[in-house]
Design brief:
The protein is an alpha+beta fold. Helices cover about 30% and strands about 25% of the residues. It has one domain. The longest helix has 15 residues. It is globular and about 50 Å long. The two termini are about 35 Å apart.
Length: about 190
């Protein structure tokens, strides 16, 4: 009887520690407050011209993928299909930062703002792979007749490289290489 109880407890613990199952459950939730709370926990504190900054870990990406597929009416998802969908993102952490631009800017394309991980005072920074910089225009305005209001940067880094850094910090610089904002990165806080 004790062996059976131990086996059941071990199975329950294994199920509780299955990140794909957890992602499926959270992605399928109809509790909007729970889902919003989950997403807010991946937001970084911003200041100055930084409008938003967020972290997308593998677990959060899995939840978002499930949520997006649900929105398209694809309710038949399992841990195998989710695992396959996440294969291109294995071991990566993505940061998405949006920087507000001066309303009088004259940029014709997204300015050369950069996003990187500083690893410490005496070590080289981590460059993103891949890195996307895109202009943001006012809602309803065509890019040809309205100036951009922001630039959004999306950068992915190997999680292991960030975790092995002595003092990892996310850094945003403007087109003159001036630091606009930085935030300490502690991935132990995120699933």
């Amino acid at each position: 009887m004790l062996l059976r109880a131990t086996l059941i407890a071990a199975c329950m613990l294994a199920l509780a520690q299955d990140p794909f199952r957890d992602a499926l459950n959270l992605g399928h939730t109809h509790d909007e407050a729970l889902f919003e709370s989950f997403n807010r926990s991946y937001q970084l504190a911003v200041s100055g011209t930084i409008d938003s900054a967020e972290i997308i870990t593998e677990f959060r990406r899995a939840v978002i993928l499930v949520r997006d597929r649900d929105a398209l009416g694809d309710y038949i998802q399992d841990t195998r299909t989710l695992s396959n969908a996440l294969t291109p993102f294995a071991g990566l952490v993505t940061f998405v930062v949006q920087v507000r631009l001066n309303p009088l800017n004259t940029y014709g394309k997204a300015p050369a703002y950069e996003l990187y991980i500083s690893t410490g005072p005496t070590t080289k920074p981590l460059a993103a792979k891949p890195y996307v910089r895109e202009p943001i225009y006012p809602v309803g305005a065509a890019p040809t007749n309205a100036g951009m209001i922001a630039v959004r940067m999306t950068a992915s880094f190997p999680r292991a490289d960030i975790e092995s850094a002595s003092q990892p910090a996310l850094v945003v610089t403007d087109d003159h290489a001036e630091i606009l904002w930085q935030a300490r990165v502690d991935l132990r806080r995120y699933r």
